[in-house]
Design a protein that fits this description.
With about 80 residues, chain A is an alpha/beta fold. Chain A is built from 3 helices and 3 strands, in the order αβαβαβ. Chain A has a domain of about 40 residues. In chain B, α1 crosses α6 and α3 crosses α4. Chain B is built from 11 helices and 12 strands. The two termini of chain B are about 45 Å apart. The chains are: A alpha/beta (about 80), B alpha/beta (about 350). At the A-B interface, α1, β1, α2 and α3 of A face α2, α4, α5, α9 and α10 of B.
Chain lengths: ~80, ~350
Amino acid sequence: MVKEFERAGFPVVLMCNLVPVAQTVGVNRIVPTISIPYPLGNPGTSKEEQHTLRKSRVGTALDALATEIKKPTVFKVEI
Amino acid sequence: MKSVICYINQFFAGIGGEDKADFEPEVRQGVVGPTGAINMGLKAYDAQVTYTVICGDNFMSTHRDEAIERILKELEGKEFDLFLAGPAFQAGRYGVACGEIGKAVEAKFGVPVITSMHAENPGVEMFKKDMYIMKGSHSAASMKNDADMMVALAGKILKGEEIEGPDAEGYYQRGIRHQVWRKDGVMAADRAVDMLIAKATGKPFVSELIIPKKDLVPIAPALKDLSKAKIALTTTGGIVPVDNPDRIQSASATRWGRYDISEMDRLESGVFKTIHAGFDPAAANADPNVIMPVDVMKEYLKEGKIGSIHKYFYSTVGTGTTQGEAKRMAKEIIPLLQEDNVDAVIMVST
C-alpha cells in the first residue's frame, strides 16, 4: 500500500516493527515502532511514558516526510 | 541414524495463540506437534527428529538477536545433520522467524536448512538466497503436503543425492549457480547462438540466467514546509469503530474503511478497537492510539508542527492480505486523498 501511495506521488512514511521486511519490499521512508500488538506505546509502562514514546516516534515520522533522501532510509528514533 | 532438529512457533507447539506470542525460546527433546509427522516421514531415510526448538513469533521479531543467541547456545554440542523450520505458510512473522533462525543455524553449524512458505510470505524474498524454501501453501490446512515436501528434499540431502534444482525439487530459486554436466551435451557457445537466433527470429527461448526484477518506486520528494502540509493517517492494524461498520475481515482483508476524526482529540477505547486477528488485541483495544496515533497528531496540529490533518483515517487488516489486494485498496484510497489535497501519508503497520 505504501508503495502505491508513493507511486501516486505522496511522500509516505511507514511506521513498522518488521523493519527488514519493509526494506526488502522497497519502502523508502521507515520509522521503527516498538512491537506488533502495540507499535506506539507499551501497556506495561505508564500512560505518560507511552505518550512520550508515541509523540517522539510520530514526530520522527513527520520529520522524515520533510527530509530529502537519496536512498531508502530507516530514520533514527530518539526513544 | 541421522539427526534432524526442527523449529516451530508457539502456536504449532500448542502453547497458545497471539496471547502467547512472546513465548521465550525453549529446546525440547524429541517431537512437538507437527514435528511428529516430520519424524514419521524421516524414518524412510533412516533419520529422526532429536530436538524441537520453540519460540514465540513476537519474541523472535522483537528480540531477534537475543532469541537467536539463546537458541544457538542451546544447540551447541548437539549433533545434527539437518535443520528444518516451519512450514510457515503465509504467516509473515513465522516465515521471517524461520528464515532468521535458519540462516543463523546454517552459519554457525554449517548444516543445510529447509523451510517452507507461501509465495506471498515476506520471508521468501528475504531468505530464499540463504536456504531451501519449499513452495508452500497459504494455510495450515495443507500442513501434511508442505511438511511432506520438506521431508522429501531432506531425504535427498541426508542420503547425499543430487539436488536437481528449484523447479524439479519445488523450492524458490536461490540465485546460486552450479556447474552441471548436461545430459544433452550441447556446449555453451552453441546454446548461446541458438538463443540469439531464436530471439532474432521472434521465437521463444529461455535464458539460463534469469535476472529477477524488483518492483521499486522512486522516492517521492520531501515536504517543503511541514507546518503547511496536510497529513493523512493510514493503518493496516485493523483499527475500526467498535461495530466495524465496513465489515473489514480480521485476516486476508479485501475491504477497508475510513473514519472521521475531525471532531475528536484522540481515539477513545470503547469507541474504536482493533479487529486484526494477527496479534493480541488487548493493548490496542485499551488504547487505540497505540496503533493509530490520533492523539499526538492532534497535539502536533495545535503546536503548529503540521498544517492540517486529513479528515479521515484509513484502515484495513494486513495479516494474510495479498499484495494484489493491498495494491487495489491503496489505489481506491488514493483519489480520496488527492481530492482533499493531502500532501503526505503516514502508514502504521502491525
